[in-house]
Amino acid sequence: MNKAKDILRSSKNSSPSGKVDGALIPILEQVSDPEIPVLSIMDMGVVRSAVFENDVVKVQITPTYSGCPAMDVIGDDIKKALKDAGYKSEVELILSPAWTTDWITPRGRKALEDYGIAAPLGAEADKDVLLHGKRLVKCPQCGSTNTKMVSQFGSTACKAQFQCDDCLEPFDYFKCLK
Amino acid sequence: MKDNLYQYLLGIADNSLILGQRMGELCGHGPSLETDIACTNISLDLFGQVRSYYQYAAKIAGDGRTEDDIAMLRKEREYLNVLLVEQPNTDFAYTMARHFLFDVYHLLFLTELKKSKDMTLAAIATKCIKEVRYHQRFSSDWIRRLGDGTEESHNRMQAAINDLWTYTDELFHQTEADKAMVSEGIGVDVTKLKAAYYEKVNTILEESTLSIPESKYFQKGGKMGIHTEHIGFLLAELQYMQRTYPNMEW
Ligand SMILES: [Zn+2]
C-alpha cells in the first residue's frame, strides 16, 4: 500500500498526452499496462508529464481507477525502462485532473480492439448501452453490433463483460470514464 | 483546524474502508461469477479511494504514521464509519440494499465535496465520483431486479430495506469535526443532503415496487466510535495480517 509516492499533488495539464520530453517518448512507449500488455502507457494517457530536471527524469502518472492495482507496477516499470536507458528518475502519482477514457489515443483504441477489447464509446452511447441495453458496442471478434451486456463489471473495474449474439464470443468492453 | 481536518478525513475514509471490506468478503462467495467479480471490483475501487484519504490524513497527522498504520492499526472506538456500512452480508438482498443506501448518499456527498476549498479533497472527490456513479448503477439495478422480481425476492428486499433504513439517519448527523470543516468551506454540510437523499431513494424504491418504512426510530453511534457488535469481527479479519506480522509489507 505505501509504495505510491505522493498522490496528492495535482498537475494543471489536462490534455491527453502531457508535457513529455521528445527524447523520452520512445522509452515510455515501451512500458505497457501489465493488464493490457498491447497498450503502452503513452497511448493509455496515464503519463501526465515527463521532463528532465537537472539529471533526473521526473515523471507524473495518473491512475485510471483509484484502486487500479497496475499503478505500482507501472511506476516500477517506468523507473526500470529509464534506468536501462541510462537515466535516473522519480515517478509521482497525481490525481488531478482525473483520468478520462478520452485520453486513450486513436492508436491505443486500435490496440485495444486488436487485443479483443471493445474501445469505449462516447458518454451518451455508453449510457445507452449500459443502462438501456442498446446494441451499439462492436464485437472485436466479428465486428457485429448485435451484442449485449452480461455484467457491468468485467475482468477489471474499468471493463464490462459483453457477449456477441452473432459469433457468440464473450468479450470485454472498456467503459467510458468521464 | 489540523485535528478537525484529520478527524474529518477519517470520517469519510472509514465509511469506504469498512464497506469495501464487506464487499471484499464476497470474493469467491458471490451468488454468481458476474456478481462476485462486480462486488470485488467495487471493493477495490473503495480501497483505492481510501488510500488517497489516508495518505492525506497521514500527511496532516505528521507523526510518522503511514496510510497503512491509520487504516489498519486503530482500535474499534477510533473508527468513525456510520453503522450502516458495517452491517453484515446476510443474504444478497441485504448486501445490495446496504450498498444502495450508502451509494445514494456517497454520490450526493462527493458532488458537494468536489466544491471543497481544500484542493486535495476536491481532487479526490472528482476522481471518486466517476467510480461511484457505476456503483450506484449496479446497486440500483439489483434493487429493481429483486424488488420487482419474484415474491420471495421482493419480500427479502423489502425486509432488508426495513431493517437497514434505521441506520440511514446517521448519515446526516454532523460531528464536531464536520461543523468545523463546514464553517471553513472545506467540509460538506450533510444535513442539507437529506431531502435529496430521501427523494432519490424513494424514486428507485417505487420503481422497484418497494417502499421506505415508516419507522421513526433510528440507530446512531458509529460517527462517535460507538459501533454495533458486528465491527469487532470485521476488524479482526481486516487487521489480522498487520497485527500478526507487525510492519509487514507486500
Ligand atoms: Zn461477434
UniProtKB/TrEMBL annotation, chain A:
Give the highest taxon in the source lineage: Bacteria
Q: Which InterPro entries match?
A: Fe-S_Maturation_MIP18, FSCA_dom_sf, MIP18-like, PaaD-like, Zn_ribbon_PaaD
Q: Which Gene3D superfamilies match?
A: Fe-S cluster assembly (FSCA) (3.30.300.130)
Domain PaaD zinc beta ribbon, by residue range, is 127-175
MIP18 family-like domain segment(s): 27-88
**Which PANTHER family does the UniProt entry name for this protein?**
1,2-PHENYLACETYL-COA EPOXIDASE, SUBUNIT D-RELATED (PTHR42831:SF3), FE-S PROTEIN MATURATION AUXILIARY FACTOR YITW (PTHR42831)
Q: Which NCBIfam families does this chain map to? A: PA_CoA_Oxy4
Q: What is this protein called?
A: Phenylacetate-CoA oxygenase subunit PaaJ
Species = Gelidibacter pelagius
Q: What is the lineage of its organism?
A: Bacteria, Pseudomonadati, Bacteroidota, Flavobacteriia, Flavobacteriales
The primary gene name is paaJ
UniProtKB/TrEMBL annotation, chain B:
Checking NCBIfam families in the record gives: PA_CoA_Oxy3 (TIGR02158)
The UniProt entry, under Pfam families, shows: PaaA_PaaC
Q: What is this protein called?
A: Phenylacetate-CoA oxygenase subunit PaaC
